[in-house]
Amino acid sequence: MQHYIQESKDRFINELLDWLRIPSVSTDPQYKDEVRRAATFLQEKLLKAGVDTAEIHETAGHPIVYAEKIIDAHLPTVLVYGHYDVQPADPIDLWTSPPFEPVIKETSLHPEGAIFARGACDDKGQVYMHVKAFETMMQNNTLTCNVKFMIEGEEECGSDNLEHFVKANQEKLKADVILISDTSILANDTPSLEAGLRGLAYLEVTVTGPNRDLHSGVYGGAVANPINVLSEMIASLKNEQGHITIPGFYDKVVTLPQAEREALAKAPFDLEAYKKDLAIDAVAGEEGYSTMERASIRPSLDVNGIWGGYTGEGAKTVLPSKAQAKISMRLVPNQNPEEIADLFTAHFKKIAPATVKVEVVPHHGGHPVVTPVDSVAFKAASKAMEESWGKTPIPTRGGGSIPIVALFEQELGLKSVLMGFGLDSDAIHSPDEHYGIFNYMKGIETIPLFYKHYADLMANGQ
Ligand code: BES
Ligand code: MN
Ligand code: MN
């Protein structure tokens, strides 16, 4: 297999570059046809790789690509989930090369080169590893499990229609485990496996003061400015210790057992390199927790966008009527996104001064997940990484969210294995997103080893 992968390397890369040229931005209706083109591209490549069937499943939004290869009903079945949609490329001027014209460039963390394009890492590059790993197993007669692929086009905008698809297709989606590559490893020489993901509560707030924009000289000082008020309200959501002040916010937070905290602390983490990568002089966060903990096992609250008043060229003196913000909270077990959204709403309304009116609208959310580290599938993933890296992967917790993972558990009764290959520094959702050639090829090598170990362990009644 190694030989086949090495000999196909250039083609494997070029096919991915072709796919990355299709701007499958799911949130912007302008790209609707491109999103479909990306789905069709994937369907064709899956068929070519050797699946029995590959279909484009229509939804009320963007299509889901579903494909399967059933070799033997007695063998275990792996359901591969991923997404072919991407985040918008904005702000486009901050890219050093156009987001949908992929190029390979070297970086300090990727001396073998990295593919720069929107979706290179999140998640087209990581999905395509599965297609090429599958092709490799087919060509070498080494496929040891049945495989089902469910690749959606709406992950970046809330997976609205996947929920319906999953509920309506329980039989079709029957499997033993879900395999997902949409997360990160610690470093290219430090493999790791995420054993959990944070959940998400996302809300939009509007603070309204006077019924119209006012002259800031005529009224300034006498009428509350909604932007000032909103800023004060936001600032009060955290105290000096970096704790979130919403009453009840931490009530359901599960504290990690000391032993697990210590295990996490053993993972190599270079704070200086972290700061240098981000060009910051200091990190921030909740007192009493390390940077790694702050971004994985602890909840957080962030303003994602804030606007109001005059933001055009030059100076316009105005006391605006409205100020708005998008606020997200990352959640950890066992926080519940709906409950947290309610707590936030009640608190935000309560702290509003009499000078303004406040409106809070919730957006999509997601439950946090923990995946067992003693399951057959986790062990198989761990063995696969150990074999391809020559190092045992470290179990970590991811800071990002894949809301649909909790739904898979609830609707299909299936746990997921989060075997991602990206780096946190790969700039997903940012300008200059990239994915290392090393990571891409390592994924293609490691995935077949997962199938091998998973079938072995399942056959041995592990
Ligand atoms: N692949 C990411 C999530 C991720 C990234 C998990 C890195 C762990 C490590 C996913 O595509 C994503 O961006 N999720 C969104 C969820 C949202 C759009 C509902 C997120 O985390 O913001
Ligand atoms: Mn993703
Ligand atoms: Mn994403």
Helix/strand-derived category reads alpha/beta
Q: Which oligomeric form is depicted?
A: single chain
**What name does CATH use for the topology of the largest domain?**
Aminopeptidase
Regions with little confidence, pLDDT below 50 for 5+ residues: none
Give Rg in angstroms: 23 Å
Shape: globular
Overall pLDDT, averaged?
A: 96
CATH class membership of the largest domain = Alpha Beta
The profile of the biggest β sheet is: 6 strands, mixed
CATH architecture of the largest domain: 3-Layer(aba) Sandwich
Terminus-to-terminus distance: 26 Å
Strand content: 15-25%
List bound small molecules: ligand BES, manganese (II) ion
The total tally of domains equals 2
Number of helical segments with 4 or more residues: 12
E-strand count = 19
User: What is the helix fraction of residues, given as a range?
Assistant: 25-40%
Write up what this structure looks like.
With 462 residues, the chain is α/β, with parallel strands linked by helices. The chain folds into two domains: 2-197 and 368-459, Aminopeptidase (3-Layer(aba) Sandwich), CATH 3.40.630; 199-253 and 299-366, Alpha-Beta Plaits, CATH 3.30.70. The chain is built from twelve helices and 19 strands. The chain has a six-stranded mixed β-sheet, with helices on both faces. It has a four-stranded antiparallel β-sheet with strand order 12-13-11-14, covered by helices on one side. It has a three-stranded antiparallel β-sheet with strand order 4-5-19. Strand 4 and strand 5 form a beta hairpin. The mean pLDDT is 96. Bound molecules: ligand BES and manganese (II) ion (2 copies). The site of one manganese (II) ion has 5 residues, from loops. Residues 87, 122, 156, 428-429 line the site of one manganese (II) ion (MN).
